[in-house]
Amino acid sequence: MPTIDVYNINREKVSEVTLDEQVFGADVKEHLLYAVVRYQLAKRRQGTHKVKGRSEVSGGGRKPWRQKGTGRARVGSSRSPLWRGGGVVFGPVPRDHGFKLNKKVRKAALRSALSRRAQEGALVVLDNLEVDEIKTKAVADLLDRFGLSDALFVLASRDERFTRSARNLPRVTVLPSEGLNVYDVLHRRNLVLTQGALEAVTQRLAR
């Protein structure tokens, strides 16, 4: 099994940790990554788009002219889809864009995404990510020390202080270990995990 160095926030090596082969050494399956990213983005869509159909447009109660004798085409309502101001035919209505994807597929895709970052050398493990105060500069300095400009930070549990410190940095995402997902792993070039998060993610995906 591969091992990786564990650093503190000052980029000093403090120990080593062994990566689980099932989680960080799996085959990278592109079709699973595609399917899960599509699944996640579909679930995020609000689906609140709406247009009015013929029965919903106001007006049009009276027949515009008599059926026969005018020389014009017969018409029953001025709110016909053929008329300006009429209803829309087969227009969008509120709906859920999400679709079902098996849990096994989602887990396998997350293993693939984590394995890709490990293979690229874009995986960093820190002993902890605690900051003394809510300050963006603390996280910006941390990124500079590790030479990162784009990163996903994964914490063992929610840390409001660190999350708020990183929130104004444009290419930084912070997630608790239970919120780790394929889209965010692929969306950021580097993956930074705390040792506690690494253990939690391994326990979740190695089964």
Helix-strand layout with pairing:
Elements: E1 3-7, E2 13-18, H1 21-24, H2 30-44, H3 103-119, E3 123-126, H4 136-146, E4 151-155, H5 160-166, E5 172-176, H6 182-187, E6 190-194, H7 195-205
Parallel strand pairs: 1-3, 3-6, 4-5, 4-6
Antiparallel strand pairs: 1-2
Helix pairs in contact: 2-3, 4-5
Characterize the structure shown:
The protein is α/β, with parallel strands linked by helices and 207 residues long. It folds into 2 domains: 150 residues, Ribosomal Protein L4, Chain: A (3-Layer(aba) Sandwich); 41 residues, no CATH class. Helix content is 34%, strand content 14%. The protein is built from 7 helices and 6 strands. A 6-stranded mixed sheet has the order 2-1-3-6-4-5.
Give a nutshell description of this structure.
The protein has 2 domains: 3-44 and 98-205, 3-Layer(aba) Sandwich (Ribosomal Protein L4, Chain: A), CATH 3.40.1370; 51-91, no CATH class. Helices cover 34% and strands 14% of the residues.
Number of strands: 6
Strands in their spatial order, largest beta sheet: 2-1-3-6-4-5
Please, what is the oligomeric state?
single chain
The CATH topology label of the largest domain is Ribosomal Protein L4, Chain: A
Distance between the termini: 17 Å
Q: What count of helical segments does DSSP give?
A: 7
CATH architecture of the largest domain: 3-Layer(aba) Sandwich
Rg calculated over all Cα atoms: 27 Å
Q: Which band does the percent of strand residues land in?
A: 5-15%
Mean pLDDT: 94
From the spread of the alpha carbons, the general shape counts as: elongated
Number of domains as seen in the coordinates: 2
Largest sheet: 6 strands, mixed
The chain-level structural class is alpha/beta
Tell me the helix content: 25-40%
